[in-house]
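DUF563 domain-containing protein structure dump, as promised
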Amino acid sequence: MVARTNQYFKTKQLISHHDGGPPQEYLPLHTDSVLSLPPEYQQPPKEQPFCAERFCLPYLQNLASSATKINSKQRIDSFCIGGLATFDSKNFGLDCSLRQWSAEEAAQGIPRHEQFPIYWYATGPSAIFRDYIRMNAVQESQRRASAAPRDFSILIKREKSNYNFWHSLMEIFALYMTLDVLRLTPNPATKRPFFSTEDFANSQVVILDDLLDGMYFDLWTLFANQAPIRLQDVSDATRLNLENIIIPLPGGANPLWHGDWEPLPCDRSELLQTFARRVLDFYKVDDDLEQENRPLVLTFFDRTRKRRLIDQGLYIERLRLRFPTVDIQVVDPAAMTFPEQLKIIRHTPHSTMVEILPRGLTQKGFRNLAKYLGHKYFSSHADEHHIDNAKGDWQSDDVFIEEDRFMELLAVAVKSMYNRGLRNEDVN
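structure tokens r here:
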């Protein structure tokens, strides 16, 4: 049967008979409504509670309704929103005092202010309250009329590891999830969400640290459309948003840190998929639709500064001889902007990820991430090999793998793509 999408009764459909007879046209019946699908079609994909509570929508829903315990130490992650605020020199002031929890709140495990954890590099709400927030500050300004647009300052203290792309993305990702939770949560006093799409234009990120911008700095503006401002650049003439201040989840609270060192049974992550889609949309990177007869693309990321692959050039040439129809491209991500990196990655249709890990390293982060996004993943470990000037540091030392093992690893990855998408090739 050959069919085109119905648009009420104006669209014709063609029915081709199995006996080879000519197609016959008919006009489908017009209906004003379509009944619900059978229940079997409406069942959401099942996920183990461990996975759903960390990597899927229940993570946001649980945070919107309560605190969420997410690791073996039962740490409770928190973020804060408050207002009206004042600003004096280098501190934000709130005209309120910390109240004591009721017996019911204490029984629910809601952490008191002094119980907020400190995260890596002195980040998170506790560190920000300690260094940048004054309680019981005298409030001189008056709250705006309820009809006026709300404004927000989002206070960000970044990790000193912001040169590490993964740490930086985890911080930005944590902010996005914080704002998602606020969009899910109604303010009991106003019945409005604490944060909404209409608030994007009146929101600004305030950078509390003095670190360099880093390559992902513009991503802070996805939900806060006003240009970020650094605390050190604030002067008496600066107009800050003081109606509401938000202290978001820090990067160290991001649930994607779970499973960094062990394989997890989780097959998908709605949180990660949404984050990836938001980043691609922000940079206007479209899906690179696969074209018929387009060669298979293999993208090799060339590490030029540390953790380099010994004899890499020789191996790549042997790989080209082994797979002459594969478009093998070698790129140096450190020499590219982030949007350029994204375009290169999107040019590699579907995806199979190959990782050569340093000898003895059991890190499983990229293995788990590949699964969450529906990619295939293959790995191998480096061989024991004498390397001049080695420091015994897996993060910087070069790696060596025998040529036969390298070729076998890449052959498995390449052949795994032979029947994905429009491809239809035999593996031998």
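The chain has ten helices and 14 strands.
lmk if u need the other ones
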